[in-house]
Design brief:
The complex is a heterodimer.
Chain A lengths: L4 H20 L4 H33 L2 E2 L6 E2 L3 H7 L2 H32 L5 H9 L6 H14 L2 H8 L13 H29 L3 H9 L4 H29 L3 H7 L10 H11 L3 H31 L1
Antiparallel strand pairs in A: 1-2
Helix pairs in contact in A: 1-2, 2-13, 3-13, 4-8, 4-10, 4-12, 6-8, 6-11, 8-10, 8-11, 10-13, 12-13
Chain B lengths: L1 H36 L20 H9 L2 H32 L5 H10 L5 H14 L6 H25 L3 H9 L4 H12 L1 H17 L2 H6 L8 H6 L10 H21 L4 H5 L7
The chains are: A mainly alpha, B mainly alpha.
């Protein structure tokens, strides 16, 4: 309770401060200077409470053994233990493997589809059809794929009917097939995200350049490859970054479809933190993993995201 | 000439083959899942899958009669609308400040807001869980509202900011020479001009709020605060296994309104999804 009181007081004073400058504006030049800060302050304070406060809390907690009862200080023990924890490294590796395969496939399909769809007369219709998977709740999508691949064995059945295999696949006990299910579910749901952005970028391009190249006898493919794609680079960067963020935090599919199995083969870093924190109640240890994620996030945000968003604006 | 026409029809064939194949890949699981929702439970998990099931509304009755689905629906709607409202109240002045004023630290503040979008829910999940527990907000829709608003605030701010950047400066200057105050300019000129951006931002925030899963799972641990998304994950009737037909119907129940709203704003979608970085 004690750590929430100052924040409430802060929010209240900002709220009242926001009203004041309107009345005093003509009287005080100093307030005029502060006015833009006052406008942006409530949003920033709100976000600081939800990110900075938990961030500091996690950092402190990561130096304690927190189970039930009082916190016991343990120094760097959590981090040392994490360094030697093969489940943690497996989670990092899985996140990277599942995320990068999924991202590459989505980018490939989205570019291919955007290339064919953007100059199609029915582009509007394609867009609406392709959008459908994206608008289902992640938990619903997870159940679709759980039923199709695991419980209902529809995938196996289709392959059997096509004569490709002659027995049901044991997907649940195969690491790579379980990862494949997660990847397919993600590609299915989120390729449209990239598709919509790429189509918009292609449609926004200068038609005259395209027309001129076309009259010179260039094929659609070479126009796309040599003219459109280089122009789209900043857009692709922004879209892929946004997608990469969401893929690395993939949780619902893992939680519902694989539960991280078999043998931690599909456990992502988000699921690892959830499991050590809320299943094993090893909060200090989970916080240490959170802090490492936080550091990685800040580095990536500063290096990659800042550049991508700044270049896309110009 | 003939060869040109031939290559053209060939490329049309490939175009429709590829687009058609993807459309099938998109829709087949959806239609099949709909059929799962409209069949009796005994026809869901069978030795071999059944593709032409008997029609049944068992699941429909089940979700309304055996489960407090109306309550989950109400929780979802209240939490989402509340969060979008919080977002707009905070984001509109912030976006105005970031787009129409020049001051020290502006870009850093803007980037800080953007960077919160990158925070994995898992990183802050544990502290937030304790924070809400200490405040006695666990299992309430207030907690969900606060969290959804926080998750989406960066997106909403950046989308609205992007639309505000498009408004010509002259419009504002004219009003200012007429003696209008900054707040009046925001209220009477800027907000009406960026209304499409505000609506887009609200819709995108709504989609992400419906999709939010990890926080909801942690914050809503009793049916009192279940939303549709998390209620789904709990439709496992213990020894009965997962109740897929009920899950399928709830999934469609949540899908239909979202789909209609998104189709209505689809022109603005690409811009919204990239937080204004791509102008569609």
């Amino acid at each position: 309770m004690s750590d929430t009181t100052p924040s409430r007081a802060g929010a209240a004073s900002v709220a009242s401060a926001r009203v004041r400058p309107v009345r005093l504006r003509r009287r005080s030049r100093r307030l005029k200077v502060w006015f833009p800060y006052l406008l942006v302050a409530p949003a920033v304070i709100y976000l600081l409470l939800i990110t900075l406060y938990p961030g500091i809390y996690a950092i402190i907690q990561s130096f304690y053994a927190v189970k039930f009862g009082p916190w016991r200080p343990v120094g760097f023990d959590n981090y040392i233990q994490l360094w030697g924890d093969y489940q943690f490294w497996a989670a990092m590796r899985n996140t990277l493997i599942i995320g990068s395969i999924s991202l590459i496939l989505q980018c490939f399909f989205a570019l291919l589809l955007a290339f064919y769809a953007y100059r199609d007369p029915w582009v509007q219709g394609w867009r609406i059809i392709f959008l459908v998977p994206m608008l289902f709740m992640p938990s619903a999508v997870a159940f679709i794929y759980k039923l199709a691949f695991l419980d209902g064995r529809v995938f196996s059945d289709i392959l059997i009917r096509l004569g490709l295999i002659d027995y049901n696949l044991a997907i649940q006990s195969s690491t790579w097939m379980s990862r494949m299910v997660l990847i397919i579910a993600d590609v299915w749901q989120w390729t449209p995200f990239l598709f919509i952005i790429f189509v918009a970028a292609l449609q926004g391009q200068d038609e005259e350049v395209e027309e001129a190249a076309r009259l010179d006898g260039a094929s659609w493919w070479s126009i796309f490859w040599n003219i459109s794609l280089p122009l789209m680079k900043p857009v692709i960067a922004v879209a892929l970054i946004l997608r990469a963020i969401d893929i690395t935090t993939m949780f619902a599919n893992v939680f519902i479809i694989t539960k991280g199995g078999p043998a931690f083969g599909t456990e992502t870093i988000s699921y690892f933190i959830y499991r050590t924190g809320f299943k094993s109640f090893n909060f200090g240890y989970a916080s240490a993993a959170s802090v490492i994620m936080l550091i990685l996030t800040i580095i990536i945000a500063q290096v990659v995201v800042k550049r991508a968003f700044v270049s896309s604006r110009s | 000439m003939a060869s040109v026409r031939k290559s053209r029809s060939e490329s049309l064939f490939i175009r429709y083959l590829i687009l058609g194949a993807w459309a099938l890949f998109c829709l087949a699981p959806v239609l099949w899942f709909l059929s799962v929702g409209l069949r009796p439970r005994v026809e869901i998990i069978t030795p071999r899958p059944i593709y032409w099931p008997t029609f049944s509304l068992d699941a429909w009755h089940m979700i309304w009669e055996d489960w407090p689905m109306a309550k989950y629906l109400r929780n979802s709607v209240l939490a989402i609308l509340g969060s979008v409202l919080i977002d707009l109240v905070l984001a509109i002045p912030a976006a105005y400040s970031l787009s129409r004023y020049t001051y020290r630290g502006r870009d850093d503040i803007g980037f800080y807001i953007l960077s919160t979008r990158m925070m994995a829910p898992a990183i802050v999940a544990i502290p937030i869980f304790f924070l809400f527990r200490n405040m006695g907000l666990l299992d309430t829709i207030w907690a969900l509202m606060i969290i959804y608003a926080a998750v989406n605030l960066s997106i909403v701010t950046w989308i609205i900011r992007s639309y505000m950047l498009d408004i010509p400066k002259e419009l504002e200057d004219a009003a200012r020479t007429d003696g209008a105050s900054d707040m009046r300019i925001l209220w009477e000129i800027i907000i009406p001009a960026v209304l499409p951006g505000i609506i887009t931002a609200a819709v995108i925030a709504m989609i992400f709020a419906i999709n939010e899963f990890l926080f909801t799972l942690l914050i809503a641990s009793t049916p009192d605060a279940y939303t549709m998304s998390v209620a789904l994950a709990n439709f496992t009737g213990g020894s009965d296994g997962v109740i897929y037909n009920a899950i399928a119907l709830v999934a469609f129940l949540a899908f239909v309104p979202v789909f209609l709203v998104v189709v209505a704003i689809q022109k603005h979608l690409s811009r919204g999804l990239t937080m204004g970085a791509v102008k569609g």
